[in-house]
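Lab channel / #folding
Pinned by the channel admin:
"Please post every new chain as: sequence first, then the structure tokens as a reply. Keep commentary short and put observations after the output so the thread stays searchable."

First post following the new format, from NK:
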Amino acid sequence: MVDMPTGDLLQVEFNTISSSFAGLGTLVSQLHSHLTAWIESQSGLLAEKIPENRALNGFAEALALGFKEYGDLSAYVLTVVQQEERNMYDQHWLSFRLYETYGIKTIRKTLAEVDLQAKVLQDGTLVIEEQTIAIVYYRAGYGPSDYPSEAEWRARKLIEQSIAIKCPSISYHLVGTKRIQQELAKPGILERYMRDPVAVSKLRKCFAGLWSLEGDACSSIVDEAIAQPSAFVLKPQREGGGNNVYGDEIREKLTKLKETDGGDGLAAYILMQRIFPVVHNSYFVRGGKCHIRQAISELGIFSAYLRKNSKVILNQHCGYLLRTKASDSNEGGVAAGFAVLDSLYCI
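Reply from TO:
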């Protein structure tokens, strides 16, 4: 997002598990391109200025490449889903593309079903219902509600112990946590992984302010957030929409956390600099009716990374996700009902 007060392009977060809407996001861009072409003469808009979104093809290509590396053409891709999956249509588009383009079949299971039906053979092969699993693609397993019992934890451990390719493995899952993002933002950390000082400088400029709430050193930033809550977002160390705290609720939450159990509960959160993006008019259609609202948009870049031991096989961007929401909404999740899928228009 572009921060209006500074003009900087700032990173909100990065996700390494269950990145949604490669399927539906691609369709929305195709829809907008088609509609723009249809009304070009009346609107003055040009369909060619809506960039192609190849997220669906990019996801399918990456999974197919991993499937090829696994080396068993009769195997399946396992998509791990939630018990009451609300985002199934986005997921199905990827399954269809995998089969239509590469002949790769997909099965869908919850973690509880994996616990009941899966086993790992002596050679490490993951098998479900007598089908070998080449890739485990997580569209669940990122939040506490995905682990309501020990069965789900057993399933996750079983998958990790297998030789199936995990998207992501537990280590890459943890890389996407806010705790790691906050560590990467510390001075000197990026330099451990990137040798080009110019690239380090460019990347660090995109980091919004992040502050840990652990230990005595956090007291000053906590006091500042209590005094000026509008300048911050309070985020729990978890994924999924609808969990962040804004405005005066930050003051109330931090004050309560400071006064409870010696402030130990603060460690479950981080503070982030609040980004104030550019506001624009947008047209929202709901229930067949069009509404003009002030809106803000958040751009996400999809990427795919495949590594075998120390050999990097694939590392590339593969499409984008643009989410637009009413400017008075604090949350931005599409599946959570706060935002809608949108398309870029290049000026």
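NK: The mean pLDDT is 93.
TO: also worth noting, The radius of gyration is 22 Å.
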